[in-house]
């Protein structure tokens, strides 16, 4: 986020405020949302385990990833399968 603020020519607090005003969410929440969607796509592709998908999207702990995934999608990541189409 600091790099984004710098490239936008804004202070970190100004960038954070402007980002939230425009998107309705914080930069970190937005990043987490993108990571969860990417992980879901990996899991639905059928070639990644929960652990490998969690590491692929930047989580250090598969347990923490599984907990966040459950909160976001109301189901365990292990319940994803390749019968549901991945998002483009």
Write up what this structure looks like:
The chain has 88 residues and is an all-alpha fold. The chain has a domain at 26-79: Arc Repressor Mutant, subunit A (Orthogonal Bundle). The chain has 5 helices and no strands. Helix 3 runs antiparallel to helix 4 (50-56) and helix 4 (50-56) packs across helix 5. The chain is elongated, with a radius of gyration of 15 Å. It starts with a helix and ends in a 15-residue tail after the last helix. The model has no long low-confidence stretch (mean pLDDT 90).
Question: What is the name of the CATH architecture of the domain at 26-79?
Answer: Orthogonal Bundle
Straight-line N-to-C gap: 25 Å
Shape: elongated
Poorly predicted regions are none
Number of helices: 5
How would you spell out the order of helices and strands? HHHHH
Q: Percent range for helical residues?
A: 55-70%
Write down how many β-strands occur, each being a DSSP E stretch of 2 or more residues: 0
Major β-sheet annotation: none
CATH class category name of the domain at 26-79: Mainly Alpha
Radius of gyration, taken over Cα atoms and rounded to an integer in Å: 15 Å
Strand content: under 5%
Q: Report the CATH superfamily of the domain at 26-79.
A: Homeodomain-like
Q: Which class do the helix and strand fractions yield?
A: mainly alpha
Average of the residue pLDDT scores: 90
